[in-house]
Amino acid sequence: MERPSLESNLPDTHEEGKLYVVDSLNNLNKLNVCPDESQRSLDEEDSAGGTGDRMAGSNTRNQCLFFVTFILTLIISLALVSFAIFLILQTKSEVDQISSRLLSEKKNIEELKKINNIILKHLNQSGIKE
């Protein structure tokens, strides 16, 4: 019951109390979550500049992460494209070998047809029939 009357009389004190509680909770959270070395860096950030520096550091970190991811993506895509080109060239050489074999086989088949025709003509001329 006394609290509402104090709050109505001292609104600035109540707001300061809220800020103090929030700061205390933040400090407690830092102690529980962060190890000693990172706590020092957090304390230095708090004393150095506050949220502006944190946002700039976070922005820089995000840009670096994006840039590294972009470069890795480019390297991986370059490797994949190189592999695809290698496979295309390998396939082209295989196709060239197969087509040269087919051409040589076609020539062999044509020669065999000519030899067969010559044999048939010779058999017909000699009078031997089946």
From TrEMBL:
It comes from the Eukaryota. Keywords: Membrane, Transmembrane, Transmembrane helix. The keyword Coiled coil does not apply. Residues 36-58 are annotated as: Disordered. The chain crosses the membrane at residues 64-89. Pfam families: DUF4577. This is LSME1 protein. It comes from Gymnorhina tibicen (Australian magpie).
